[in-house]
Amino acid sequence: MPAPLSQGASVSGASRLTGLLPGLALSLFIAWLAIRIRDASGLSALNPVVVALVAGIALRAVAGMPAWLKPGTAFAVRPVLRAAIVLLGLQVTAGQLLSIGGGALALALCSVVLTIPFTIWLGGVLGVSRPLAQLIGTGTGICGASAIVAANQVVQGRQEDVAYALAVITLCGSAALLIYPELGPLLGLSPRVYGLWAGASIHEVVQAVGAAAAGGPVAVETGTITKLARVVLLAPAILALGAWVRRGADATSQLQAPMPWFAFGFLAMIGVASTGVLPAPVIGGAKLLVPFLLAASVAALGLNTDLRALRAEGIRPLLLGIGASLFVALIGLLGAELV
Prior knowledge:
By secondary structure, the protein is an all-alpha fold.
């Protein structure tokens, strides 16, 4: 006698959960380890997302990628990532954004709107594949690693494209973290202008805040909020990028970009945070959870990345990242002087 429908569905659900557990558990463990390494190092600018990526790629290179890990890592790359992006919205409020004035908000908008198309155009000139150029442009223009992995939900590049883009953005952002504090005094920038420049042009939030801190309290406050304004533009940028990919794909193409519904969740969380109804422990918990979930997603990405394919990309994507970083640095400096 066949099992009742509800019993069959329950067995199927349990079987699926069992299949997800190994790869998901490994991804979460790597994320936890990456955060512990960051904390033990004492370097707040050491991004656990990058540590998780390196660990995932290294483990894949040494031990390979067994088939039984793939369902769980695929789950980490998509649903877990999307949950992290939605929760990221709780870190920004409308009040914070309005506090820096319309000029600074316009500067943040220009950084994103100009940098992404420029990077894609320069990628074409350098012979970099369109998906990889789109990922590097998004990471440079918006907020580094989280923007890259979010953008790939619509770009649908190869795992190696995402890994290479993350590596490029990490190198360029780390260089900016070291170079900006030296250039600020040489250029005679006021604390406010320096903070605007750092916030409008450095890739990762922690890198932008770290560089801005060298300019003092005014610089770090201005730089942090300007950077958060770019983070808010993640959702509109992903929606626009998805529309671009869908419009450019053939009707029969496998590259049809899905609608990034998680972007609307991100915007909704900004609205919730702006109301002030959530208690501080909830906001604080989200701030701890987001990097952990992002690191787990990127660890899974690393586990699925073939190191040989990364080597095959050559130096051109790195040159693209440097060119895009110089472009956004120039836009940010000119805009900061004007506003």
